[in-house]
Amino acid sequence: MLVLTRKVGESVKIGDDIELKVLSIDGEQIKLGIDAPREIAIHRKEVYLSIEQENSAAVETSVDLLNFLKKE
């Protein structure tokens, strides 16, 4: 893991297309701005994990349904 120190208004570049900018700091809360191409999905980690879990459940349901249909 790369650890960097940035001040308000400073940025970090990720590759050629992504910029992460510190917009403000208020106590323990940091507001970040992310400039990236539209085709790159950006989610908070808890949202990303929820999406992964829902996708896994959907795949399991699909596999169960296919197995059920094959038996008929």
Automatic annotation (TrEMBL):
Compartment(s): Cytoplasm
Family: Belongs to the CsrA/RsmA family.
Summary of subunit composition and partner proteins: Homodimer; the beta-strands of each monomer intercalate to form a hydrophobic core, while the alpha-helices form wings that extend away from the core.
NCBIfam families membership: csrA (TIGR00202), PRK01712.1 (NF002469)
One Pfam assignment: CsrA
Keywords assigned by UniProt, alphabetized: Bacterial flagellum biogenesis, Cytoplasm, Repressor, RNA-binding, Translation regulation
Protein name: Translational regulator CsrA
Protein role: A translational regulator that binds mRNA to regulate translation initiation and/or mRNA stability. Usually binds in the 5'-UTR at or near the Shine-Dalgarno sequence preventing ribosome-binding, thus repressing translation. Its main target seems to be the major flagellin gene, while its function is anatagonized by FliW.
Coiled coil region boundaries: none
Gene that produces this protein: csrA
Keyword presence, Repressor: yes
Domain of life: Bacteria
Source organism (scientific name): Terribacillus saccharophilus
